[in-house]
Amino acid sequence: MTKPSLSQLYQSLTSEQTLSARALIDVDTALRAARGRVVPHEREEVAAALAGSAAHADLVQFLHALEPASAELARDLAHSGAAHERRERGHRAAQGARPRRWQFGAVAAGVVAALALFIARTGPMTHQPFQAQVAPADRGDEIFSGSLDHSVAHQAGGDHIFRAGSEDGNDRFHTPRGG
Amino acid sequence: MGRSNDPNHQRLEQLLSDYGAKLRALVAAHGLARHGIDADDVEQEVRIRLWRAIERDRSAAFHASYIQRVVASTVIDALRRAQVRAAEPLPEESEDGFQPFPDQNRGPEERASGHQHVEKLKACLDALPERRRLPISLHLQGFALQEIADLVGTSAEAARKLVSRGLDELKDRLRGIGAGDFDD
Q1: What is the pLDDT of residues B97-124, one digit of tens each?
Q2: Is the pLDDT of residue B5 over 90?
Q3: DSSP string for A19-62
Q4: A19/B contact by beta carbon, under 8 A
Q5: pLDDT for residue B131
Q6: Which of B12, B18, B23, B35 to mutate to test the interface with A (most CBs of A within 10 A)?
Q7: Mean pLDDT of B164-173
């Protein structure tokens, strides 16, 4: 006849005390207990909670046993994430190259168009300065000669006024041509 | 290209699937089912939570501690739900609900005997000195000596002595009250 197991009896005793409303074990505490890193000031409470609740004890032991698998998954995910990042970078580079080629063509076409416009606009203007140089010269000559005549006549009057004033003392300022 | 054909997607699926299988096996091995935990539900929930986290940022580093946290929080949520379910009255007692340590194969006499043993064990444990009671209780909960040492804050050797002497004393006390002999 097999003897009854103390462990089974004890776990049966504590199985009803699952996670009460006053559960001492939260996620952080359970993880610390699973790693064997219980904070000293909570040690007594945590140990008592684990001793008194089969659910707490099973949870912590389960988490402890799961640690290697979680570490392996973390490593695999890191490797997979790095590979994903490399792929994404390559993908972005491949996608980015096409618009850049297209943009380069557009910029080149724009430069050519701007040059053509510049040439089209600057072509007639090359004659304008020549005409402008000639026309003012002609007109200038005419104006200058006219004004020169006028100036001469005026000067003559002026001279006359000046002379009149100095010779006979009459006020002949307002009759410049009177003499 | 569809996501199911995405090699990265497939790789993640495979990783989470492998991890889920280990998780499920450990849930079963550690007797969480007796607390109303469904291993398949836990696995699925953990995979969903991890998948969402990975989808949020594929380049993020997922440390083992983060994964453990996801699992711990999922299991604690499941334990609480199970506790709420257990507190709800059932139409036929134990017909559909889970039973801690199911003993369907045991007759009423055996059940009564088991209950008596539990009561005697409780009485004998309470009679033990305080410094031995906690290490023995942790031992009976299935913790290894090093784990007991970490939890109690002593060396593994000291924990071993406390457990060994405590067990001897506990068995003596049980014999003394006529409960018979017990295995560890």
Answers
A1: 445 555 555 666 666 666 778 888 888 9
A2: no
A3: S-TT-S--HHHHHHHHHT---GGGHHHHHHHHHH-HHHHHHHHH
A4: yes
A5: 86
A6: B35
A7: 91
* Residues forming beta bridges with residue B183, ordered by sequence position: A5
User: Residue B59 is nearest to which of A34, A58, A81, comparing CB atoms?
Assistant: A81
| Paired tokens of A3 | 């003897």
Closest C-alpha among B105, B129, B125 to residue A11: B125
Q: Residue B144 corresponds to which tokens in the numbers above?
A: 């290894």
Question: Does the distance separating the beta carbons of B82 and A6 come in below 8 Å?
Answer: no
Is residue B39 over pLDDT 90? yes
CATH class of the region B108-176 = mainly alpha
Residue ranges of chain A with per-residue pLDDT less than 50: 21-22, 130-135, 139-140, 142, 145-167, 169, 175-176, 178-179
- State the Cα–Cα distance between residues A96 and A113, nearest whole angstrom: 26
Domain ranges of chain A: 6-115, 128-179
For residue A28, the model assigns a pLDDT of: 92
Partner residue facing A6 (CB), from B83, B151, B182: B182
Q: Give the whole-angstrom CA distance, residue B172 versus residue B180.
A: 9
Task: Kindly state whether A8 is in contact with chain B, defined as any CB-CB distance less than 8 angstroms.
Answer: yes
User: Domain segments of chain B: what residues?
Assistant: 3-87, 108-176
- Which pair of structure tokens corresponds to residue B96? 């559909």
Nearest CB to B140: which of A10, A43, A84? A10
With beta carbons less than 8 A apart as the criterion, state whether A92 and B108 touch. Answer: no
